[in-house]
Design goal:
The protein has 476 residues and is of the alpha+beta class. The chain folds into 2 domains: 34-62 and 215-476, no CATH class; 75-214. The chain has 10 helices and 25 strands. Strand 9 and strand 10 (183-186) form a beta hairpin. Helix 1 packs antiparallel against helix 2 and helix 3 (64-74) crosses helix 5. The radius of gyration is 43 Å and the shape is rod-shaped.
Length: 476
């Protein structure tokens, strides 16, 4: 610049030289500073999000009376029949036993107690031998007995049901007593015979009734598949919920007030999506059932807000281009602004013109401000290379609250999107919405930021609504 002015002096009047020299000196040493700090590198971390898992509880109830009805329907006819005196080591007994009335079931915890009222017909052959002669006589009698059993029910990891049945004694309602002349002959051995001979038979029928009324795998299998289809929960602005189940848990069976209770817990990822139906893959096979002592009921549904850099830069330019920074005799104007990623930080490139020319770089981590429901850049500060150059050539800029001003202007409101998602989700849950084979209900309590990742195309913020979610099965 100085060289050009000296050449101009040779072609014009000498009176211009002092003025041009003074202007050149003023511009060179008082106002027009140009800096070129090293540009921070552009880099991006893998966008692997890990939203928190939800625990969806599915309560299953079985009326003991229905189970009792099935048992009685299956356990009919003769329970025991011995039609030969020569059986059981020639015991000289013939016995027939059949169910008199319905079996009654009582559930306590995971233990099923039941009594079987039985009518017994007994025919006894008496043989008397004396002095080489034998005399025989046959007597018969009817009696009633109550056979008592206990069955412990447990679930297995392969979705099968195990039972362990033990005898719980008996009670004679009318004891069998035969008379042989003036002598009464009691037959207590009959009770042990009936218990031992019927335990396997009755246990098998109880197992059949439990399995036929309690096909747990079939019930959960259908729900497991149906729940993986995305659910549309909003109409005005379509919002979709996608549930991806990972495992199934349960606790030991319990009962109260004549009802058998079973709680199934599905551990799953729950996500919300704006716009069109999200892609999904149905995993049809059920995993092994995990038996645990308790089930959690914490529900988290995640929603990802995607802020493209194209949109971020457009908003940044609306807020900052033309903004003036003045400090005493110094003044600069923001000519352009550009944001990009550097690992987990956002870089803000400000192109300045005026007392300071060039591009300066600021950086900070994106965060969520609950008070303003906005994404902003937290701990915004000068990049180290920019800071070192400014300290040497434009330290006056540190006296201006530039960082606070830039930070306040780089806020991106997301409250409307979150409010809309929460409202529609809460309405959906409160309506006890019916799906294919189940109903969904629950409530939403808190909103939290789970993660923010900076990708090459956008800033992705993952939020989660916390609350509770229940799934009730629809009867077929």
């Amino acid at each position: 610049m100085l060289h050009i002015i000296l050449k101009m002096k040779d072609k014009s009047t000498g009176r211009l030289f002092p003025v041009c020299l003074i202007l050149c000196f003023f511009c060179s040493f008082t106002s027009c500073r140009t800096i070129k700090p090293e540009r921070p590198p552009e880099s991006y971390l893998p966008a692997d999000f890990h939203p928190p898992f939800s625990n969806i509880n599915i309560p299953i109830e079985i009326d003991i009376k229905k189970l009792e009805h099935l048992v009685n329907r299956q356990l009919v006819g003769f329970l025991y029949a011995d039609t030969s005196f020569d059986n059981n080591n020639n015991d000289n007994l013939m016995v027939r036993a059949w169910k008199k009335n319905d079996i009654t079931l009582v559930m306590d915890g995971n233990q099923l107690s039941y009594s079987v009222p039985v009518i017994v017909w007994i025919k006894k052959r008496f043989v008397l031998e004396s002095f080489g002669f034998s005399v025989s006589d046959v007597k018969e009698v009817n009696a009633e007995i109550l056979l008592k059993f206990k069955t412990r029910i447990s679930l297995n990891n392969d979705w099968t049901i195990s039972t362990l049945t033990t005898s719980d004694g008996y009670e004679w309602l009318s004891a069998p007593v035969l008379r042989l002349g003036p002598v009464s002959v009691p037959l207590p051995v009959i009770s042990d015979l009936l218990l031992s001979s019927n335990q396997k038979t009755i246990n098998a029928e109880i197992d059949k009734a439990i399995v036929s009324s309690f096909d747990l795998k079939k019930v959960v299998q259908k729900t497991w598949i149906d729940i993986q289809t995305p659910i549309k929960i909003g109409e005005d602005y379509p919002i979709w919920a996608r549930i991806t189940p990972a495992e199934v848990r349960t606790v030991p069976l319990q009962s109260s007030a004549g009802v058998l209770h079973l709680s199934i817990g599905i551990k799953a990822l729950c996500e919300l999506f704006y716009g069109s139906e999200p892609a999904f893959t149905v995993q049809e096979s059920l995993p092994d059932l995990k038996i645990t002592s308790r089930l959690e009921n914490d529900f988290h549904v995640s929603i990802m807000l995607d802020l493209p850099f194209r949109h971020l830069n457009e908003l940044a330019r609306q807020q900052l281009v033309g903004y003036e920074i003045a400090q005493g005799k110094y003044k600069v104007t923001v000519m352009d602004v550009f944001l990009y990623g550097n690992a987990d930080k956002l870089q803000v490139a400000l192109n300045l013109s005026g007392s300071l020319n060039g591009t300066i770089y600021l950086s900070g981590k994106p965060s969520y401000d609950k008070e303003t429901s906005s994404l902003r850049i937290n701990d915004l500060n000068f990049d180290i290379h920019t800071r070192n150059l400014l300290l040497k050539s434009a330290s006056w800029i540190f006296h201006h609250n530039l960082l606070q001003t830039i930070g306040s202007k780089l806020e991106y409101p997301v409250g409307e999107e979150l409010k809309s998602a929460r409202t529609q989700l809460q309405t959906f849950l409160e309506s006890n919405s019916k799906m294919e084979s189940f109903r969904i209900s629950g409530n939403i309590k808190n909103l939290d930021l789970d993660d923010i990742r900076i990708t090459r195309e956008s800033v992705k913020a993952v939020f989660s609504f916390a609350g509770s979610l229940n799934v009730s099965l629809e009867p077929e």
